[in-house]
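Feature request, filed as a ticket because there's no other form

It would be nice if the structure record came with a short human-readable summary line next to the tokens. Right now we just get the raw output. Example of a typical job, pasted below so the devs can see what we mean:
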Amino acid sequence: GHSLLDREMSLSQPANLVRLVRTSGLCILRQLRLEEKLLRSPGAGNWCLLNDGTPERSVVLGISGKPHQLVDVRRALDDGVRVIKRFSGGGTVIVDRDTQFVTLVMNAAAVPDLALFPRQIMEWTGTLYGGRPHGVFADMPGWQLRENDYVIGERKVGGNAQSISKDRWLHHTSFLWDFREETMKYLTNPAKQPRYRANRSHSDFLAPLKTYLPDRNALATRIEAALEGMGLEVAPASIEQAEDAVAAHHRGSGVGTTGVVDLETALTLGPDDRAPMLTGA
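Raw output as currently delivered:
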């Protein structure tokens, strides 16, 4: 029943209230589709989604990602690795059960002094994760925001992407709790990369969070205090409530731009071609 949720949402909620969903094993395709709809649901309020791991190994491209420049298309097709194109910009990630996802979908009014531009949002979320004393990783030596990545020392532990509309913004991060060297074979070493990477291979460039954090629940445990430290009010919620909020408030077509890449067709295309999408996947 949406009527109860509608009523609950329309009661005068404080502008800085964030609903925090903590879940695990949520399919990344379902998650990205939900996030895209939440962004386009201005009446749905502010959300923070934290998902520990996705069951099926997948490659996720940014909205303008060109498969042949970023992915070993033949190998992904042969091994049945799903390639997803998401609605936000940014780079390519390979995700699996050891990837931890944190997404913020916020109305401009939630953080009134934040200018809605990529750099400013990057800095705000950088403080959420690394700022003292409340940041999730505030006690970690060597933690910093480098270009658009979260790094410890010289190694990347998290990648970020954003989508910004008129008075609503989304910032999502994939953190590497752990990674297996062999999964990186599906990605190419991209031509366009952050300067600090200096053309290092994936194994020399990435670091698993498990070497720095006491247990894999640390992110989920610490995020609430970090959000409160940024001046937000936090209320727990479920993934079903987020989906109900979308059903009640979503504007625009039901389809969205997130979907599964048609790898068989991609094989026939050139390096400058955009990702062909499967319909109904």
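Something like this underneath would help us a lot:
The mean pLDDT is 93.
The CA atoms of residues 156 and 206 lie 5 Å apart.
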